[in-house]
Amino acid sequence: MTKHSVLLVALAFLAVGLNSERASAQIDTDGAVQIGISGFGLVGADDQVAFAGLSLTKFTGERLEIGGDLMLSFTKSSGSDSEVGGFFMGRTRYNFIGESMTVPFVSAGVGTQLDDPGEGESRPVIFQVGVGFKHFLNENVSFNVEALSYAALVDGEFEVMEAAFILFGLSIYVGR
Fold it and tell me: 0.85 exceeded by the pTM?
């Protein structure tokens, strides 16, 4: 799947979220803490990749979340050993809250990789932007879909990744 087709799928999900049937009550998130798990996998002829993530955010108002994500990656390429890596991102998410049980959002973050970058290499600064939606199954649980794109600043050079990622996950909300 190309980067453009992944982004088109994400925009379709966002459109569904914006046009979903209205619920009778708005979800109250002000002051809540969101704990989320997410992941995805890719299997190709030569590569297998799986990502698993854990996120923790705090709503600083009705629409804005601030927190962090810990993502782990598991990669196996033909002709090479398996690799485990990951990164930590501090990030923010802005939610477009209405009266729907589906809440579209945009996100942005900055972080770094957790694994050793290798001898003679510096640890990159990673930038992330995303778009997605949360569909509340009840007032404390949501199903989430998010398309993310990444770029990195490595040794003074800005590199944009050639792929976008779509994460699927669940979140619980506590502390309301």
Answer: no
